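Our consortium's second objective concerns turning raw sequence data into structural hypotheses that experimental partners can test. To show how far this objective has progressed, the report includes one record in full. It was chosen at random from the queue rather than selected for favorable results. The single chain below, 349 residues long, was entered without modification.
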Amino acid sequence: MEISRAIGVGLCGLVVWGCTKASGPGSTPPLAPVAQPGEPVASSSTPHEPASHDPSESATAQRVDPPAIAESPHPQPKPNPYVAPPIRTAGDLTVHAPPHEPGERFGGRLRTHVDGALSKGSPRTWVGPQVPGFVVLLEDTMELFLLDRVGDEFMAFYREPYGAGSCEAGGTSNCRYYARLYDIEGHELWGVALHELLSASTQLEIQDVRYADGTLYFNEACQSYSSGAKGKCSYLVAYDPQAKEIRWRTKNLVSNGEFLIHGDYIVAGYGFTGERDFVYVVSRANGSIVHKVSVPKSAETFAIGDDGLLEVRIYPGTLKLFEMRGWDTSHPKLVATTRKPSRIQTVTR
């Protein structure tokens, strides 16, 4: 009788010890054969040790190293940002993928990627680069107006139409503007309400905006004659979106219309009916004017050819060419030339 009781206790100890050793995350207890009625339960544990309740041993048993993740021998493909519905609409703007081709040049002094009147209720069509699906077309009441790809980032610029709330055609109040930067996967890196940065609430208009090397450049151009703003307009502004501060602002009457970023300098122009017209070279470091040349009428666009010549399109379409001398020094100059240009390409840096 005593012998039978001892055997029974020994079997119970073996079963408890086996279950304790098998517990813990990640462990899989051994599968025991199904016992038939009247048969003893079999255990795969060693039958000479009782169950262990040592806390340190239980902790050791529960620690399981994660499986190693094998690296793929094939590199992951870069994301394709140009995935978008074939047609999108927001406000009065329609964007096709691929976009429509621009017709007759639109915008006047404004650099824009939309074609159509700028008033609320007038249809506008996107004629710029293809718009990735993650780029929103409407920021509050402001519509997408420009989109520049800079490396693996996208700078989107928004403008409120006339009659949408902040400004009216022929009025003096400034319109609302917004700029946003996306990375190639569609994450927003920053956004800024540019109308809040303008130096006055009236008589100003952003006619061009560009992003380069972490700095956003834009002009606060005169809406019309500079006399309407008492000459306090057409500044060129450098803004740091990360620090959320204006780095510099040029003197007045430096930039209305488009401008061009090239190396350490910006080429900008100012001119209007009955006013003197100049092309300026501005330092990107501090906004100082390092050179200027007189032109017969206001400069509308700038481009650089493969041969390094600067092409300046003068209103209403006259072409003037300049050599860009000393551009890698602190004293750059624009020297007029009669050389014939090579193939022209627009550059932003």
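The partners drew two points from this record. The radius of gyration is 35 Å. The chain has two helices and 23 strands. Both points have been shared with the crystallography group to help prioritize constructs.
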